[in-house]
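::Encoded backbone::
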Amino acid sequence: MSEETQTSAMGDVLKRSYAVVFYENWPIWLGGVLIGILSVLTFAWARPWGVVGGLRNWADWFFHQVGLYDQAPLSPILSTNSILTLGLLWGAFGAALLSKQFAIRMAPGRELIKGVVGGCFMGVGSAMAGGCNVGGFYIASSALSFAGLAMMVGLIAGAYLGLRYLYWEMMNLPSSPPKAGGGKKINLLFLEPYIGAIVFLGALVAVWFYAKEAYTRVGGLLLCGIGFGIIIQRTRFCFVRCFRDPFMTGEGDMVKAVSFSIIIGVLGFAALKWTGLRPDNAYVTPTFWFGSLVGGTIFGFGMLVSGGCGSGSVWRAGEGHIKLMVVVIFFAATNSLFKALINSSAGFKQLIGFRAFIPDLMGYKWAVIGLIVLFLIYSLVGQWNEETDKFTVEM
């Protein structure tokens, strides 16, 4: 084989490999496994993954700059909450460019209004629940908190109510005719992979800068956040689907992916806590039961109306969806304002709830076994519903 032929063959191999990684979506189950592992590694490195805390930090900083808040928050470039959310946005943006899936996508006026309303519901719900679908449910459940399970019930109820509203809207409100050119997307497909490479090169420079300035912990969290962004964008991992699909389409793939991901998180978090590497009450949110249940219901309704959860809104905003950008802005602002309202009232704060650590009731062994069994059952119910359409809601 000639040298020219070998070079051509190697070029074909590289092109096919690139297509597999960036042009083809990764399996959903792989996304669940990778997110579960990365969530444990993030907790072991510094702190658990979160989304709304970073959004609130950005809103707090903005409100302080305009004079609404007296107390200045931690700088968004140093706050670990902010860095994780920034990393999620950064990773999704870069992955979308490399896969040629980034484009500025405008939405109809009604959808933008729903983005405002849904974002506000999500902001209120996440403030009450102590986190969004990530911190209030996914991480809280992994951290062996009863609050995570209470929010799970709320999310299921809210998703059901949200789907019923969307069906009512489809049947009773006339759809707006699309405007001329409304389906066009502003993109630069040829340049996107090169821009994506620059985006990730910039991420490495940022991490190097943090390490150079003795902020290695923050730089590591930025890498973790970017990792979450890449995984979620490539697998289309969507918490909304976990709670919506059983009622809408009956599909159970996302239910299984989220369930298995949480099981990995439970095992990892329990090991870190049981060995004393992390405190028992670390990220056991003080929102059981009222805040998590009611807040989860409000959040679940909001994520159906807006079309994205906490993590989903951020990573899809990174793909260029204008509606989700609107959701993120109102989600962040409302969460900040409602959190300030909760903190200003001792009675309201007490009503929200308290910390409820599952091992305090049944020990680590049975807490872990119980959670694994619970999410295995949830996964099996999702599979059974996929075959029977038992919970599918008709218009």
The chain has one domain: 26-174+190-388.
